[in-house]
Design goal:
globular, Alpha-Beta Plaits, about 30% strand, alpha+beta, nine-stranded mixed beta sheet, about 300 residues
């Protein structure tokens, strides 16, 4: 089997992309609205026209600005025919990424360096693709992932430079309480109180680790799991931070983790942390160096 270095020197039609982005200007990684009626509603920038399998097709209707749409548009504009393009994490509006992973499968082979050049030259200032590597034709960035790690940044003081990349709660925080409470989410448990669930969706989530750290005036909250439910991390962060401001009750948090009630989801939704401080930090796959899984 050829080494990764050898594969980099050969044309391929399948690639694994490492993507960074500032999500402030975007409506998330991709549109997550319900399916629109035939012939109606806006289309995601870079999405294919109806009846087309090409995700990078140039739009002809009003668009919703998304990360995937921007990348798809650049590839389409370069004349690439895209069979499939998918990201590992479907980040919400305003959420950022330090280590989003996506796959792109093309109709025709090309060099990884040429694809990276197209993306570097064509993407806007707030999206970067620092790595493009050939991958197996069956690689699926979303379904093959074994863990995802999110980072949330809370600033403990007002900052002139980090409004769009942190949350400043504006009240003193009991940091010891956060250190003690954040790990309560670890393990395989129902997250029904801390997520937006679709009808019939399984609320159980295996969380491998919850870690806290400090970097100067920044409080860093990390969480690693196989997958996350919609808006789960922001509600988890909001829960512990509001407890640390004495605006929520740790006993209520413990109770809703053990046995969520009918009012639980609404309660914690109202206390959710803003999107600005949330980053998809890394996505891991079997065979990756430094697999971030815990208790797997």
């Amino acid at each position: 089997m050829p080494s990764q270095r050898d594969r980099q020197k050969q044309p391929s039609s399948s690639f694994r992309l490492l993507i960074e982005y500032d999500g402030t200007r975007y409506s998330g990684w991709q549109r997550q609205a319900p399916p629109r009626p035939k012939g109606g509603g806006p289309r995601e920038a870079g999405a294919a026209p109806q009846g087309s399998k090409e995700l990078g097709a140039e739009p002809k209707e009003p668009v919703v600005k998304t990360i995937a749409g921007a990348i798809g548009h650049v590839m389409h504009h370069a004349g690439l025919q895209i069979r499939n393009f998918k990201g590992a994490g479907r980040t919400d509006a305003g959420v950022h990424a330090l280590g989003q992973v996506a796959h792109v499968h093309l109709e025709e082979p090309m060099m990884a360096s040429d694809l990276q050049y197209i993306l570097e030259r064509g993407l806007p200032y707030d999206i970067a693709v620092p790595s493009v590597e050939p991958c197996q034709a069956g690689f699926d960035a979303r379904h093959d992932a074994v863990s995802r790690t999110y980072l949330y940044r809370v600033t403990l003081r007002k900052s002139a430079f980090s409004k769009h990349s942190t949350w400043w709660p504006k009240l003193p925080l009991d940091l010891r309480l956060i250190e003690d409470t954040w790990p309560l989410f670890e393990g395989n448990r129902s997250m029904a109180a801390f997520a937006d669930l679709e009808e019939g969706e399984d609320a159980n989530c295996q969380i491998y680790s919850c870690q806290t750290d400090r970097d100067g005036h920044l409080l860093l909250l990390r969480v690693t799991a196989r997958f996350f439910l919609k808006r789960q991390v922001r509600r988890m962060v909001g829960a512990v931070v509001n407890c640390a401001m004495d605006r929520a009750d740790v006993a209520r948090l413990r109770e809703d983790l053990a046995k969520p009630g009918p009012e639980s989801a609404m309660h914690w939704a109202e206390l959710a942390a803003p999107a600005s401080g949330l980053f998809l930090e890394r996505v891991d796959y079997r065979g990756d160096r430094g697999d971030a899984r815990r208790n797997s």
